[in-house]
């Protein structure tokens, strides 16, 4: 039975199985009628459903496709909080607890405007979640905190140390401002210094964060994936794969960052001068679209348009009649979402029995191909936005097949 509770994007279903009653969220038809279980408590189910309904509204407002996995995570988090409250697992928070110190540090930086919006929505949000979920809250438990932080297998040791660095900064700031004894800041700084991770040191330059994780596709795999997208050989619903064909092809041909491709506008594509100007980027930070001027490493860079790339762009221009601002649109006529592609990408690689690598590796593959096929290194640096040092260290070592690229794109 459906409960008429005035939700915009969903309903609550009551499921009776013998003596047991549970509730589930059922999304509206236009979202695929997906269902998410919300437990057996009616009041909790209503409250959680309200949060999900509001979250969907936010996603629609920023023009992102509804992420069912994100909604499921939200439900699970809220159910865990409700269960903890019901069992009385709520303790008294003390002023020297880690989460209190972190909140003071964050509030201070919010007032003075220390961090940009992307940092707020990504790193700060991530560390806040870690601190709030950390069972170690006493500063005396330094060893236990480190052990807990580094025990999470979903993070690399480098990422765990980076998160600890933020926590240490918060403790140090509080110690300097008299919220806790000064010794705590010193002790935790010494603790951080003593922790070394066996990973490559990050470059001081503003190269891509992924530049140390080169894991290229073979060129044969790239074109197999493109064919699968174009002809929808593994799509369950018509149009869901083909909408990404031109976008993925563009990533391969230009080696640009996905954040640059989704932000590309027609005003920055000059078919007469045969060049593209990459001068904007767009990222999804915790569900919010953040747009920025410039690329990751420069204010702008030019990319030459050859025959193959020109024909691809002409196809995009002739198809994009509903929105003439952005080059890449989805089947609904909205700007392309890299996050939406990620789900299709993972499914497609699994169906084709191709080892999973993120779409960003198309950039690495393109750079590797040209670096190993006698394209002048200094010119390659200019068009992809990498330094000569990075290309020589990370790409010239790779053994990528030497094959000829096709000259034209089949419609």
Low-confidence stretches: 200-211, 401-411
Secondary structure tally, helices: 15
Q: Count the beta strands.
A: 9
Principal-axes shape call: globular
Backbone CA Rg: 25 Å
The percent of residues in helical segments reads: 40-55%
Mean pLDDT: 82
The largest sheet is: 4 strands, antiparallel
Q: Main sheet: which strands, in order across?
A: 1-2-3-4
Characteristics:
411 residues; alpha+beta; 4-stranded antiparallel β-sheet; 3-stranded antiparallel β-sheet; 15 helices; 9 strands; 47% helix; globular; disordered C terminus
Summarize this structure briefly.
The protein has 15 helices and nine strands. It has helices spanning 42-61, 68-86, 98-112, 117-133, 142-150, 157-176, 182-194, 219-231, 245-254, 258-263, 307-319, 338-351, 361-371, 377-384, 388-394, and strands at residues 2-3, 10-17, 20-27, 35-37, 269-270, 275-278, 280-285, 288-293, 301-304. A hairpin with a 2-residue loop joins β7 (280-285) and β8 (288-293).
Give the helix/strand layout.
Layout: E1 2-3, E2 10-17, E3 20-27, E4 35-37, H1 42-61, H2 68-86, H3 98-112, H4 117-133, H5 142-150, H6 157-176, H7 182-194, H8 219-231, H9 245-254, H10 258-263, E5 269-270, E6 275-278, E7 280-285, E8 288-293, E9 301-304, H11 307-319, H12 338-351, H13 361-371, H14 377-384, H15 388-394
Helix pairs in contact: 1-2, 3-4, 3-6, 6-7, 8-9, 9-11, 9-13
